Amino acid sequence: MFVFILALTLTLISSAQQWERLGPEGGMVVSLGAGGLGPVYLGTADGHVFASEDGAASWHLRGRIGNRLDAVVTRLVVDAGDSNLVFAAVWYREAAENGGVFGSEDGGRSWKPSGLEGEAVRALEAAPSDHLELVAGTRTGVFRSVDHGATWQRISPEGNPELRNVDSVAIDPRDANVIYAGTYHLPWRTKDGGKTWEPIITGIIDDSDIMSLRLDSTNPGRLYMSACSGIYRSENQGGEWTKLQGIPYAARRTQTIVQDSRNPKIFYAGTTEGAWVTRDAGETWSRTTPKDWVVNSVLVLPSRFQHAGRVIMGTESGVHISDDDGQTFAASNTGFTHVVVKQFLAGYHGSDRLLILAQRNGWELLESSDQGRAWNAVPLKPAKEGKSPLVPDEIEEASGSPWGWLLRMANGGFWLRSEKTGLWNEWKPRARPEIVRSKSPNTGKTASRQAVALQIETQIAFADDSAIVSSRQGLMRCSESGDCKRLLAFRSPSVASAIWVSTTSAEIDVIQDGKLGLSSDGGESASWRDLPVPAAQALWIDQTSSTTPAKLTLGTAGGLFLSADSGSTWVLAKNGVPAGRMEAWLADPAFWLVSERTGGLYLSLNQGASWNRVDQDAERGRFAGLVNLGNGNILAGSQAEGLLRWAKASD
To answer: What distance lies between CA 578 and its chain's CA centroid?
Structure first.
């Protein structure tokens, strides 16, 4: 799920172009890998692989594994003799029982399947004594290849109810037949290459999820293990375990343990509450990073690297490095822009202000005033004294209203930011009081009802001076103060699934009660049309001109539909655009731009008659919003790809 900014000069469609990553820097790092020499590799949660040639000082996108957007690169193994030969363990988020091993022979630029297709591969290691041998852990068991992934053999009992859901594996450097496997439940060991297995559980708490196994480089009989119940050490190949003290395990998961081969008594533990280090082989531990860091991977560069001993840490917010044995860390994300973005939008009055809701160690609300080159956190302080600050994790949706940024929270409440003070006030839409035309039998006076608080649904659209909102009381026109008036043509209590409104609010298009309602008098009356798809598949509606009859565009779960006669007839757009789920949309007199859920940004210069895809596969991802900067420049926010600029190769 990750903002991407694309500067698209429409007059240059046929010219040479190049992509430039702008930022914001950082993003979720799932895995790190390095061989004896050569690049450091980085894997993400959507199949992308980055590489660094300078010891993690800067990064470059190398390629994507497979053709899916949900491929979690959980492990990267670099061949000991050839740093361009890389293997990746992959599982798919949207199909947890699927994945495989993939291989690259050109340093991660291109990838091809290397076995175990259909297996959710969560662990992968190469035998230190034989680089041709690989061992993989999957949801169904343990597999081994002795020919660089050309063929694989299951070495754990098929269908075993315990020896499955493997999260970690380790191979004895002296004897590749001695293999350890950590499962969701307990650790296991084989001494004969998988012919027989035994649980190695003496001394550990039962039902321990084994997330990492690490053999001591100076004594392979000594084994370290991280579990949900803490960190353990064994001096006899797992025959007996001792729980190490120093890292409290309550509300923490130790996801990886890594030894510094240059200083064998130093181990690093990456946890969901920061990184910890021991300098006495596990006897004592201390946290060396902020507590709120979620550390997924740790790598210590071996002695043959230029920056030997450098500690590289992959977190949910990006890469951090240390050159003082883990005492201090500094961010190192130059070129790595892979932030998960939930939403990207411009302010109502134009692109002078941009907003993204991004995930970096939790959700953040970021604002840019220079077309996306620099981003600053938006303070979430309420204007009213005593109110607690808003929590970014609870933001469901942001909108650019004519009065400032508007947030819809998880509890259904709305908050409006003052452009003058930068503070937030609750926005509470309420129906105007209605005059009751009957007199009271006791007093003979007319009575008025109190304003009724509205139960606002997810759909909301803005005109220059008002908001059109969907509520359980029907469609309403609301002011900045929150006073609302019912729109008579759309008074049905059914929730509107899509709304479009002109800047003057005279023209309103609404999908409601399974139909498309069109109003040209501000909602006083409407004409109704059939939709070309079931209403549940309709995602958004746009009116691309003010001509009569109106030209309409409908985004659906099954493609893009066009109408030139106010919705009387519809045509499915073809000629280059797929019939998939249409998400982000942008219309300009000179062009139309639309994104499709499974990846792809499609451009039409002839009002939908034909389309060309304008993003590249390496940058492919779901898009979280499109913004027109004018003069043919477009900003496109992707849910994972960071900030990009598309320009002439000569720029």
So the answer is: 23
- pLDDT tens by residue, 275-288: 999 999 988 999 99
Q: Count the neighbouring beta carbons within 10 Å of the beta carbon of residue 225.
A: 28
Reported confidence tier of residue 72, pLDDT bands at 50, 70, 90:
very high
- Token pair listed for 435: 């005059």
Structure tokens, 551: 């030209």
Which of 192, 186, 267 shows the shortest CA–CA distance to 222? 267
pLDDT at 442: 55
CA 88 to chain centre: 20
pTM of the model: 0.81
User: Above 80 in pLDDT, residue 447?
Assistant: no
- At 141 the three-state DSSP class reads coil
The pLDDT score that the predictor gives to residue 154 is 96
- Pairing mode of beta strands 430-431, 17-21: unpaired
85: nearest Cα among 19, 163, 149: 149
3-state secondary structure of 377: strand
Q: Where are the domains of the chain?
A: 340-648
Q: Which residue carries 């290397």 as its tokens?
A: 114
Q: Which fold has domain 340-648?
A: Methylamine Dehydrogenase; Chain H (2.130.10)
Q: How many residues does the chain have?
A: 651
One-letter amino acid at 465 equals D
- pLDDT category of residue 5 using cuts at 50, 70 and 90: very low
| Interatomic CA distance for residues 325 and 231, integer angstroms | 21
* DSSP at 10: G
CB 152 within 8 A of CB 136: yes
In this prediction, residue 33 has a pLDDT band, given cuts at 50, 70 and 90, of very high
Are 298 and 338 in contact, with CB atoms under 8 Å apart? no
Tell me the pairing of strands 414-417 and 254-259. unpaired
Question: Tokens in use for 358?
Answer: 């991004």
In whole angstroms, what is the distance from residue 166 CA to residue 74 CA? 12
Between CA 154 and CA 194 the distance in angstroms is 8
What is the phi/psi pair of residue 488, to 5°?
A: -60, -35
Which residue in the block uniquely carries the two structure tokens 């061992």? 135
Instruction: Please name every residue paired with 146 in a beta bridge, in sequence order, or none if there are none.
Output: none
**Is the pLDDT confidence value at 6 over 60?**
no
Burial 175-202 (b: 16+ CB within 10 A, else e): ebbbbbbbbbbbbbbbeebbeebeebbe
Give the integer Cα–Cα distance in Å for 595 and 8. 14
Nearest by Cα to 65 from 92, 83, 38, 84:
92
Amino acid at 360: R
For residue 385, give both structure tokens. Answer: 């004294």
pLDDT of residue 545 exceeding 90, the answer is: no
Please count the CA atoms within 13 angstroms of the CA of 504 that sit on its side-chain side.
7
User: What's the gap between Cα 343 and its chain centre?
Assistant: 11
Q: Residues 618, 620, 623, 626: what is their CA dihedral angle, to the nearest 10 degrees?
A: 70
Please, which pLDDT band fits residue 501 given cuts at 50, 70 and 90?
A: very high
Q: DSSP for 539-576, please give it.
A: EEEEE----SSPPEEEEETTEEEEESSTTSS-EE--SS
